[in-house]
């Protein structure tokens, strides 16, 4: 696309970032995230959501927190979907204190807690 003078759209960047991150290639994913910043293409919650989910899959919980901070610094406010995703990933990792803090924060912000977040099987915590 670039060779033909075309600028990839948000959905294409999201697909690339999510694909790399799902396969554990976070350096490549972050390069494309940085490229979005360089060309002034706004990152959205779903851009970061794919990264957060992949970090959880690869048990990289500190990176989830860093990703959330970078998301906020980049001007992208986490929404209820982001918070639900964070709670699910922290719960899968057994990080119950982090999960509970996020849930309390959501309640204070009057954000919607999705049923898929509240129905985590107990076997995931053992």
Describe this structure in words.
This protein has one domain (7-118): Tetratricopeptide repeat domain (Serine Threonine Protein Phosphatase 5, Tetratricopeptide repeat), CATH 1.25.40. Helices cover 65% and strands 0% of the residues. It contains 7 helices and no strands. The longest helix is centred in the N-terminal third of the chain and has 13 residues, at 10-22. The radius of gyration is 15 Å and the shape is globular. The model is unreliable at 122-126 (pLDDT under 50).
How many structurally independent domains? 1
The radius of gyration computed from the alpha-carbon positions, rounded to a whole number of angstroms, is 15 Å
Average pLDDT value?
87
In whole angstroms, the N-to-C terminal distance is: 47 Å
Question: What is the name of the CATH architecture?
Answer: Alpha Horseshoe
How do the helices and strands follow one another from N- to C-terminus? HHHHHHH
CATH superfamily: Tetratricopeptide repeat domain
- Number of distinct helices: 7
**Class by alpha and beta content:** mainly alpha
Helix content: 55-70%
Tally the beta strands. Answer: 0
CATH C-level class? Mainly Alpha
Low-confidence stretches: 122-126
The coarse overall form would be globular
CATH topology: Serine Threonine Protein Phosphatase 5, Tetratricopeptide repeat
Keywords: Repeat
Pfam family, one: PPR
Protein name: Pentatricopeptide repeat-containing protein
Kindly summarize this structure in a few lines.
This protein is mainly alpha-helical. The model is unreliable at about 120-125 (pLDDT under 50). It starts with 9 loop residues before the first helix and ends in an 8-residue tail after the last helix.
